[in-house]
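BUG: 3D viewer hangs when loading the predicted structure for this chain

Environment: internal workstation, default settings.
Expected: structure renders.
Actual: progress bar stalls at 90%.

Input used:
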Amino acid sequence: MPEQRPAHHPTTELDSRYSSALNPRPGAGDVTATEWAEAQRHLEAAEIFWVSTVRPDGRLHVTPVIAAWHDGVLYFSTGREEQKAKNLAHDAHCAVTTGGNALGKGLDLVVEGEAEPVTDPALLEEVIAAHETKYGPHITSPEGTFHELGDSFRRGDAVVFAVPPATAYGFGREGGVFSHTRWVF
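Structure tokens produced before the viewer hung:
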């Protein structure tokens, strides 16, 4: 299980092969790498993520999830019998992505790492609080119950996974300026 730790600063590099730096467009000659702090703001604000895992036979499995960025780690959950849980039990490597669908604006992010089940009760409560703070307005019932998501985490009905980033990528698209940033942890 990942230790709680503040997000540290990874090495940051701009890959000019896939950025406007190599093929400048008007106003894009001085494109720079996206700062990690900006990427973290996007991870904190994003509501939908896509988890990519590998089945035991090598086929890919991709599915949408909700996730919370907390203390430098990305957390998501799934049912114990769902395909992604089975895949992660076989191979913990995964990629978690988020971003937009517009070609001329936005920042797409890919976080690669190894998913680790969260078993520490104190950390689990922090993760529940992070999810409730982020998603409460969307999935809280009129009675104020967080659709029992927190309780399912506590009971172990759902597996909560932590994905500490090993490598992350950012693909920026603002006003025709394209950037490709890589962060290594």
